[in-house]
Design a protein that fits this description.
268 residues, alpha/beta, Dihydrodipicolinate Reductase, domain 2, five-stranded mixed β-sheet
Length: 268
């Protein structure tokens, strides 16, 4: 039986990719609702047609689906909406996959509270490649040890609002976890002027914005005499949609709890 999915932010670029990915799932998933903000200019448009597909009759709505209308909600909206959607999903008993970035610690706490009653996958980057990268960098950091300095550089399109990207922060968390560091104390997000020599414990996270870059992330392991660079480059938003739909299929029927893409991919 197909997993019924509701997409929040369905009219956006990632949302349209999600609509296409669900349509291409060979019957494993079906789109049951498509939600957008009330002021969205194409509200009430046929969501499939908006995504470049043949009309399906399902129209964009500003209303959340009711209880029992979907098995899994997929949210790529905005932090305020995402928290409200997670709480509404808990009230409806629907699982939810969250790919929204820019979430604060308080936002994540509220999502974790919702996960006490429903299954939730929360990940700042749904790309399968990025989540494999998280394992690779953690393994590399442990093997290389303290003799290598750790730096992250991320690049995104000029319209991205949050910085550093959620993915860059997750990469930094993975490095901190692997090396036993407190990221709150060791992260260095900016260098300007006479900042003094680099400390051994620093994890640098630098941001670049410009053009139409979907998302590039490089982790540098800088030693004395050599260096390793591990890079992921997204060339299409489809990679995020494919990962999110895979997560939604995996999440259907799971017990309540807070999961991430490493759980989905069996990387823990």
């Amino acid at each position: 039986m197909a997993v019924r999915m509701s997409v929040f932010g369905a009219g956006g670029k990632v949302g349209r990719a999600l609509v296409r990915t669900i349509a291409e799932s060979k019957g494993a998933a079906v789109l049951s609702a498509a939600v957008e903000r009330p002021e969205f200019p194409y509200l009430a448009a046929d969501v499939s047609q908006l995504a470049g597909l043949s009309p399906s009759g399902l129209r964009l709505s500003a209303e959340r689906p009711g209880k029992g209308a979907a098995d899994v909600w997929i949210d790529f909206s905005a932090p305020v909406s995402t928290v409200a959607n997670a709480q509404a999903a808990a009230a409806c008993g629907s699982a939810i996959v969250i790919g929204t970035t820019g979430l604060s610690s308080a936002d994540k706490d509220k999502i974790a509270a919702a996960a006490k009653t429903i299954p939730v996958v929360l990940s700042p980057n749904m790309s399968l490649g990025v989540n494999v990268m998280l394992k690779l960098i953690a393994d590399a950091a442990r093997i290389l040890g303290p003799g290598y300095d750790l730096e992250i550089v991320e690049t995104h399109h000029r319209l991205k609002r949050d910085a550093p990207s959620g993915t860059a922060l997750r990469l930094a968390e993975a490095l901190a976890e692997a090396t036993g560091r407190d990221l709150d104390k060791t992260a260095r997000y900016e260098r300007h002027g006479d900042v003094g020599p680099r400390t051994d414990a620093e994890i640098g996270v630098q941001t670049v914005r410009g053009g139409d870059v979907f998302g590039d992330h490089t982790v540098f392991f800088l030693g004395q005499g050599d260096r390793i660079e591990i890079t992921h480059r997204a060339s299409s938003r489809d990679t995020f949609a494919q990962g999110a739909v895979r997560a939604a299929l995996w999440l259907a029927g799971k017990p309540a709890g807070l999961y991430d893409m490493r759980d989905v991919l069996g990387l823990k």
